[in-house]
UniProtKB/TrEMBL annotation:
InterPro entries: Metalloenz_LuxS/M16, Peptidase_M16, Peptidase_M16_C, Peptidase_M16_M. It holds the Pfam family Peptidase_M16_M. This is Nardilysin convertase. Signal peptide: none annotated. One of its GO terms (molecular function) is metallopeptidase activity. The keyword Oxidoreductase does not apply. Residues 225-504 form the Peptidase M16 middle/third domain. Keywords: Hydrolase, Metal-binding, Metalloprotease, Protease, Zinc. GO terms for biological process: proteolysis. Residues 35-219, 512-648 form the Peptidase M16 C-terminal domain. Transmembrane segments: none annotated. Belongs to the peptidase M16 family. The gene is LOC115656717.
Amino acid sequence: RGSGSWGLNSYFFLTFTGNAETLKHEPKKSNTDIYSRLRDFWQHYYSAHYMNLVVQSKETLDTLEKWVKEIFSQIPNNGLPKPNFGHLTQPFDTPEFYKLYRVVPIRNVHSLSIAWGLPPQERHYRVKPLHYISWLVGHEGKGSVLSFLRKKFWALALYGGNGETGFEQNSTYSILSISVTLTDEGYEHFYEVAHVVFQYLKMLQKRGPDKRVWEEIQKIEANEFYFQDQADPVDYVESLCENIHIFCKEDFLTGDQLLLEYKPEIIADVLNQLCPVRANLVLLSAASKRKCHLKERWFGTQYSVEDIDKYWRDLWASDFPLNQDLHLPEENKYIATDFSLKASDCPDTEHPVRILSTHHGCVWYKKDNKFKIPKAYIRFHLISPLIQQSAKSVVLFETFVNILSHNLAEPAYEADVAQLEYKVVSGEHGLVIRVKGFNHKLPLLFQLIIDQLSDFSFTPAIFEMITEQLKKTYFNILIKPEMLAKDVRSLILEHGKWSMIDRYRRLMKGLDTESLSAFVKGFKSHLYVEGLVQGNFTSRESKDFLNYVVLKLQFLPLPHPCPVQFRVVDLPNTHLLCKVKTLNKGDANSEVTVYYQSGARSLREYTLMELLVIHMEEPCFNFLRTKQTLGPVCFITVETPYSLLVIYRYLSLFSSSIIVVN
């Protein structure tokens, strides 16, 4: 009604899954009336004194007050006392929690999850002890758990923390979990991986909370808070509604983001509870299939439950030695401190303009004079004709980019946690480098990436680890109907496209380190570099980014002009049908893509196509999903690079084939 956003929150949640067995047959056997139980629940908890209301609007306060009274005054208030769960201080206090669970996933992946059930930590929101601990455990720089595991070739990634949702943090308990993505070798040494995590936690316990680290996290979070983008009004009022349930009045706006008080005794108390004997271990891997003789009732997931191995149980119960390679991170040099706005050194423009063009490349530039924030975005595309010469060259290029990302993980992590984002991407025709964030320290991050590219090196062990992971990545893409459909559609439409099947088959034949070294040398020898710099930089500073790339890489210009990067097949004016059988025989889902080719269009016509999509979304969703119940996902989109209009329909339990209609 009117212009505004409303957030009404009563702060309780229900389970999101059920079926005829759980909602009808089993209750009937036990003489349970589900309708009466649900109505009783509603009458007890649907009460105004449980609820908070937040309204955001440009209307006047008098108008908003009138609307609120008119719309919400009839919500009943039963006056019943609110339940109190303060007596539940020991969550998951059961022997079944302190076990090793092996689980067989659908995807080809190895992962180890370690979790602790803790007393509720919501009341410590001003200190945020779980945030402090997870920030250190999840660190990827020198001295971190992941840095050590990567050097052992046991892990690819590590994630730790508390989701701060109702399922992970509430008034009865909090959960701290650490998840490690393992290599094949890491899976064989998963107990050793867990031991490294426990050694790091023991080091934190012995050292105690570190004020310098806490204040560093506080500064990073404050920078993000004060320069955050405006949130969607619907999301913002919903977030505030939840905050009102948890925080003191003065912290409604900041309590979920800022670190407000340093209290080392609270952090130490939580740290001391993170001991091995209180942990739950979940090992996720298809390699465990022979050991998993149990089956989960509703989803049929294979799993097993066993005691922790005696050797490790005894070791973890003792005063085991620390690992000298594990230590706190060094001071972060990427945290921005200069937030001044730079004066323009050239005329302002509405769109990016090319400010530098040489045989080596060009730079496009746009000064931010609209949002006026101390941030910038940099994108560079290093274009090479070598990439699309064969399926082998595509695989070598993706291996090269994955190793580059691996090499960057540790030195660039400090920048990442300081709210400087970076991405190196294997594009169709070149290496794409993207960095964004506070402009003060952004050049340092860009130079680090170019330096790593210039000095690129790898060991046979890293090569083996990355290629094995790439096999899993290709496989996991191919078993998803929606991804396979997209790949087949691109293969039909794009000139010179190498399909995922081509790449997977070539990778499975095997690659050698000599081939990769030769490819990288050839790639870096001849390039055309195109860059875009937007935000709080001057035009002179923007030119320096290209100059740095040319200086460090010492490449030659391409012998021929930069090729057209996207060539799309002009489809005949007739209906075409392509059917592809899914590669995952156990997946009953299907994908239907209806593709309409529009051809090259003007900006106005592209905009009209976008409006058409918006107009079509609701009736398509209503007919295909709501009325026909054909599947859980249905959406429409415009693919502007190809000048296409695409309709996706995701069918559930329909057939084992994928259909692409052109």
